[in-house]
Design a protein that fits this description.
Keywords: Acyltransferase, Transferase. This protein has 158 residues and is of the alpha+beta class. It has helices at residues 16-33, 38-41, 70-76, 100-114, 129-134, and strands at 9-12, 50-55, 61-68, 83-91, 119-125, 138-146, 149-157. Helices cover 32% and strands 33% of the residues. A seven-stranded mixed β-sheet has the order 1-2-3-4-5-7-6, sandwiched between helices. The two termini are 27 Å apart.
Length: 158
């Protein structure tokens, strides 16, 4: 594990410039590194989700995540009341192993709490199950394919 980052700030995306930075992180991590087709990475939920952006002390974008809540979360989680969806968690390679991913998860959970959520659902890449388990998430259901990558649904009570 790398050294914890200092001087990192996490904020809610506010405006086109922030969104461009968040999309840049997702482009680097998902589209370039993991070869997810852009038409699958960027979806209709981007316009209505709350996005978080992690910035280094120099203003460089280091990570991002999004929160889907309300009617969209109900539709995506099978109608589970009080559940929000954490998604598109991405941390650039240089910032991995520093705890930034966990900070982003906790920030999304807090946003969910503020919106009345009692539970968070996420769709984890199988290679990341241990990361989420360490944060209190429990896998449920079978492994499934999403964009050519094996995933499992995980949940955590808030």
């Amino acid at each position: 594990m790398g050294a914890p980052l200092t001087g990192v700030s996490i904020r809610v995306v506010d405006g086109d410039a922030d969104m461009a930075l968040a999309r840049g992180v997702r482009q680097e991590v998902f589209v370039v590194e993991q070869q997810v087709p852009p038409e699958l990475e960027y979806d209709e939920y981007d316009a209505t989700s709350v996005h978080l952006l992690a910035l280094g002390p120099d203003g460089a974008a280091l990570g991002t995540a999004r929160l889907i809540s309300g009617a969209e979360a109900l539709a995506m989680t099978g109608g589970t009341e009080g559940r929000v969806l954490l998604g598109r968690l991405a941390v650039v390679a240089a910032a991995r192993g520093t705890g930034l991913g966990a900070q982003l998860v906790r920030a999304v959970e807090e946003l969910g709490r503020e919106r009345g959520a009692r539970e968070v659902e996420l769709h984890a890449q199988v290679q990341a199950l241990g990361f989420y388990e360490r944060l209190g998430y429990v896998a449920e259901g079978p492994v499934y394919d999403d964009a050519g990558i094996p995933h499992r649904t995980m949940t955590r009570l808030l």
